[in-house]
Specification:
The chain is α+β, with helices and mostly antiparallel strands and 719 residues long. It has six domains: 74 residues, Orthogonal Bundle (Helix Hairpins), CATH 1.10.287; 230 residues, 2-Layer Sandwich (D-amino Acid Aminotransferase, Chain A, domain 1); 109 residues, Beta Barrel (OB fold (Dihydrolipoamide Acetyltransferase, E2P)), CATH 2.40.50.140; 82 residues, Orthogonal Bundle (DNA polymerase, domain 1); 87 residues, DNA polymerase, domain 1, CATH 1.10.150; 68 residues, Rossmann fold (3-Layer(aba) Sandwich), CATH 3.40.50. It is built from 25 helices and 24 strands. The strands form seven sheets. A five-stranded mixed beta sheet has the order 2-11-10-3-9. The protein has a five-stranded antiparallel beta sheet with strand order 14-13-12-15-16. Strands 5-4-7-8 form a four-stranded antiparallel beta sheet. Helix 2 packs antiparallel against helix 3 and helix 18 crosses helix 19. The longest helix has 24 residues.
């Protein structure tokens, strides 16, 4: 029986095979109409006809529940998942982009690409340029042409499983055309149009009185609903612009994205090819001029090297590709009054001045706080020691200019001196900690000048540092403990009951055992109920097995952010190896110290901070207690093709004549090697060019294999 005749057959007379065929036809037809209505603004049928198709689909599924398809139209309305989002590990990392802020920066970026590739002076490769959508990054994996899973960016390696919600987004196909590769990962941005955002806020204001601050927050909040039916009622859109795991189907970025359009994905019509830096900058300013007329928020323009073979040669830094960058639009500004300056104490003891402002709207967001950086900034002195703002200081009562760019913390950039009150006085920065009363000092830097930041010397006796370190420990990119946010940390830290108090990281993981023995239970406190307490304990339990890089980052070691934590985790592999090496490096003279400084990307400043952290008895005591409660997981080695240098530690020294040093390092890392900055006993291979000096001598002394550039290229040739 043909599909057309099946469409006329009553549901209660369909056989099992006929029902299966009819559901397949309905799924494809409804998807076509969804795309025509939502993506192309050109409906092909009336609302009544569309509703009839969906009603027939539901009726057949009701009669044959075992035949419900993964891409069923009914699932685009939503079936509530029974649990919170799971995690999906990206097959290829979803990295962020570096930012540029001036036209001159674009020239420098293009010149850096040229030098890396060794191209002749005055030439640059072709770039693509497209608007940078202010939304939520998404990766969608198709297997056998069908949407299999979808995940947010997350930390770049692991994202949230939002598959059920993504199926409700009309812009995103559930089924790709015949002939696509078996595995296709489409990446892009989920966003909400401005007019849709305003309409949604009006509806929410009428229903609950709560509204979203901006379209980006609305898009993110809508996509992260536990109930897909809520997401289905939100007007989410999608632009495709990149990919993850997928065979190369075209030679260029531009042609690959155009292929996505052929598959049914929306792609941005403002994406163009640029053959010169002048064309890139001109397109940026055209988009900037037309920005207000667009119905979606953008915060800049993204440039990408168009040639995919060149992209592969350029490779990646630790957190961003070398072949792409974002040229951000200028910050948005507003005038308001500075009501007060509050000093906050951070986890490293830094005293940070925060401006308390008369609330003002900047870029669609109400701003009441802004950073003042440090005491020199308040005085009108820059990092170089030279005047900024023509030497104008900032005082309480001043009318100030507030600047905000994207999600960057708002800052005060200048004052309107003509409006300064006659009674105003220069701000006196405290020399004692407002939290514990300890001395607050500015340390001397290596160049003899004072550090810009004043720090509390109270250390572990300072409650502010304790609280901030705990907040950092439980934060999203560290242990990411759901239900243990900043307010909860402050609550537990301030409790008088020792059985319920949290003062160290280990206290978090012993809380449930201690609470069970406590006379006063958590459910007795306002804001806690049986369910919330149960959920909190479950969230803590789920984090006992923790990725090594997250644990290192969570420790709050000065100078060790997410990037350095990942570098250290990859270099040492396991917690046991890392801890043993850091303790052994305490003398700052032996082999362990040399190896730490040889890790590519870790300089002496970071090495000093890490070793000093492990040498502090209080830190060792807190770490030992924590390790009794958790199980750090070994760092997964990056997935690489089989190669003769995979797993080896390589050092490049001397001049390279057939490739740049950066390209050589990028190639080695892509093939699974570790690139070190100095030679040690753990070095496997030294690639030496003309002019090689002490590193070559050290390699010869240690009996390490040494080859020249030609031999290196021969060894990795064809990979």
């Amino acid at each position: 029986m043909s599909d057309n005749s099946l469409a006329l057959k009553p549901v209660d007379t369909l056989t099992l095979d006929e029902a299966q065929a009819e559901l397949a036809r309905l799924s494809a037809e409804i998807a076509t109409h969804d795309r025509a209505y939502h993506a192309e603004d050109a409906p092909l049928i009336s609302d009544a006809e569309y509703d009839a198709l969906r009603a027939r689909n539901l009726a057949i599924e009701g009669r044959f529940p075992d035949l419900v398809r993964a891409d069923s139209p009914s699932r685009r309305v939503g079936a509530t998942p029974s649990e919170a989002f799971g995690e999906i590990r990206h097959s290829r990392p979803m990295l962020s982009l570096d930012n540029l802020f001036a036209d001159e920066d674009v020239v420098d970026f293009a010149e850096g690409v040229r030098r890396f590739l060794g191209l002749p002076a005055g030439t640059v490769p072709v770039f693509t340029a497209e608007p940078k959508i202010d939304g939520l990054s998404l990766s969608i994996r198709y297997e056998g042409g069908r949407l299999a899973v979808a995940a947010t960016r997350g930390d770049g390696l692991t994202g949230e499983n939002v598959t059920a919600n993504v199926r409700t987004i009309a812009d995103i196909p559930n089924q790709l055309p015949a002939g696509v590769p078996d595995v296709v990962e489409i990446r892009g941005e989920v966003y909400m149009g401005r007019q849709d955002f305003f309409a949604l806020n009006e509806r929410m204001r009428a229903e609950s009185g709560k509204v979203f601050a901006n379209p980006r927050n609305a898009a993110a909040g809508s996509l992260r609903q536990l109930d897909p039916s809520i997401t289905a009622r939100r007007p989410l859109r999608f632009f495709a612009y990149a990919w993850g795991e997928m065979p190369r189907l075209a030679a260029t970025q531009y042609d690959t994205v155009r292929l996505f359009a052929d598959w049914g994905f929306p792609v941005n019509p403002l994406m163009v090819r640029c053959a010169s830096v002048e064309e890139m900058i001109a397109h940026y300013h055209r988009i900037e001029a037309d920005r207000a007329a667009l119905d979606y928020d953008i915060d800049g323009v993204v440039y990408k090297v168009d040639d995919l073979a060149l992209q592969e040669r350029l490779g990646f830094r630790s957190r961003s590709p070398r072949w792409a960058t974002a040229h951000k639009f200028p910050a948005e500004r507003a005038f308001t009054v500075l009501k007060d300056i509050e000093i906050q104490v951070g986890r490293t003891g830094a005293l940070t001045p925060v401006a308390k402002l008369e609330p003002v709207t900047v870029g669609g967001v109400v701003v009441s706080n802004a950073t003042l950086h440090n005491e020199d900034y308040i005085k009108g002195i820059g990092q170089s020691g030279l005047p900024i703002r023509e030497g104008r200081d900032i005082r309480v009562g001043d009318t100030v200019i507030v600047q905000r760019a994207g999600d960057v913390i708002p800052q005060i950039v200048d004052v309107v001196v003509d409006k300064r009150p006659e009674t105003s006085a220069p701000f006196i920065f405290p020399t004692t900690c407002p939290a514990c009363g300890s001395h607050a000092v500015r340390e001397e830097r290596g160049d003899g000048r004072l550090d810009a930041v004043r720090r509390c010397t109270g250390g572990l006796v300072c409650p502010a540092q304790q609280v901030e370190k705990l907040k950092h420990f439980a934060s999203r990119n560290a242990f990411d403990i759901e239900g243990l946010g900043d307010k909860q940390i402050e609550f537990f830290h301030a409790l008088q009951e020792p059985e319920l108090r949290i003062r160290t990281p280990a206290d978090i993981f012993t809380l449930e055992r201690r609470e069970a023995k406590s006379f006063k239970r958590l459910r007795d406190f306002p804001g806690f109920g049986a369910t919330s307490v149960k959920n909190l304990f479950a969230a803590i339990e789920a984090r006992r097995a923790i990725a090594l890089n997250r644990l290192i980052f969570a420790l709050g070691i000065r100078h060790v952010g997410e990037t350095n934590a990942k570098i250290l985790a990859r270099a040492y592999g396991t917690w046991e190896h890392f801890e043993e090496a850091m303790v052994a490096a305490a003398d700052k003279a032996g082999e362990a110290w040399t190896e730490l400084n040889a890790v590519e990307g870790i300089g002496e400043v970071v090495a000093d901070a890490v070793v000093d952290f492990f040498a502090e008895p209080h830190n060792r005591e807190a770490l030992d207690a924590l390790l009794d409660e958790i199980a750090p997981q070994p760092m997964e080695a990056p997935t690489v093709v089989a190669s003769p240098v995979a797993g080896k530690t390589v050092v490049f020294t001397g001049s390279l004549e057939r490739m740049t040093r950066d390209e050589a390092k990028a190639t080695a890392e892509r093939l699974g090697a570790k690139v070190a900055g100095s030679v040690s006993k753990k070095t496997d291979l030294v690639v030496a060019g003309p002019g090689a000096g002490s590193k070559l001598a050290k390699a010869t002394e240690l009996g390490i294999e040494v080859i020249d550039e030609d031999a290196w290229l021969e060894r990795v040739n064809g990979l």
